[in-house]
Write a structure and sequence with these properties.
The protein is an alpha/beta fold and 247 residues long. It contains five helices and twelve strands. It starts with a helix and ends with a strand. The mean pLDDT is 86. It comes from Candidatus Mediterraneibacter tabaqchaliae.
């Protein structure tokens, strides 16, 4: 009888010890891991304050462990121009945020600012800041009344976004940076100074490979001459490529 009573006492002591340990851990999690500051890195066109304000717009963000779990273990909402937020702790009360921003495919003018969209055509950022390396897209018709952050830019033919991405990818591959890009009736044109290059609606890789040597030849033969380089119907079997000087 006594042995059974001692065993019960030992069990209760273990239970009480476990509860006390869990309570201590819970108290440490609440009081030690209180959010006091942030360290943000990797952001370029989003300001640090924008990122921290986004994270803190959650009543449980007072706890650094909660923030870390939310952004590392769940599919948490992110600012429209951010691909991911990786959260670590510099110390128990300092949140370290590593930002991976989306690569913007292009931008258009919109209500006195620049409206940036990603490769899927998703409106990702409205800013007065120019993002280096992102092409300006001219003549891209869209319904300004239906523009919504985080949604696709409301254009008539959304296949144009894939064309913009493909052209941009091949321009980068050839170390070419146009002054702007234009989209008209499903066709793409790029501009290098006073020279317009018509690329048509596809087969961009081969066409863009011709641009650099032709521009060099034009500068040699027709210096300071504005005109249009016709690559929209480029045929690798043909030796002639048409350049039409402006009237």
């Amino acid at each position: 009888m006594k042995r059974r009573k001692h065993r019960k006492i030992r069990v209760w002591l273990i239970v009480v010890s476990v509860i006390a340990a869990l309570a201590a851990l819970a108290a440490a999690a609440v009081f030690l891991f209180q959010t006091r500051s942030f360290v943000v890195e990797g952001n370029s066109y989003y300001g640090e304050n924008t990122i921290t304000t986004w994270i803190q717009n959650d009543r449980f963000s007072v706890n650094t462990l909660y923030i870390m779990a939310k952004y590392n273990l769940t599919d948490a909402d992110l600012p429209s121009g951010v691909e991911s937020l990786k959260i670590t702790l510099k110390d128990p009360w300092t949140v370290k945020v590593k930002v991976k921003e989306k690569e913007m495919a292009g931008y258009v003018d919109y209500e006195g600012a620049y409206l940036y969209f990603d490769g899927s055509g998703i409106v990702s950022l409205r800013s007065n800041q120019l993002i280096e390396g992102t092409p300006y897209i001219e003549n891209l018709a869209f319904d300004t009344a239906k523009v919504e952050m985080g949604k696709k830019l409301p254009v008539e033919d959304d296949t144009i976004f894939g064309k913009i991405v493909e052209v941009s990818k091949n321009l980068k591959k050839c170390d070419l940076t146009p002054d702007k890009m234009s989209c008209t009736d499903g066709n793409v044109q790029v501009y290098f100074g006073i020279v317009e290059v018509l690329l048509g609606s596809g087969d961009y890789e081969e066409k863009i490979q011709q641009v650099s040597p032709i521009l060099a030849k034009l500068a040699e033969l027709y210096p300071d001459t504005a005109g249009t380089l016709h690559l929209e119907n480029y045929d690798p079997e043909s030796e002639s490529i048409r350049f039409v000087p402006s009237a």
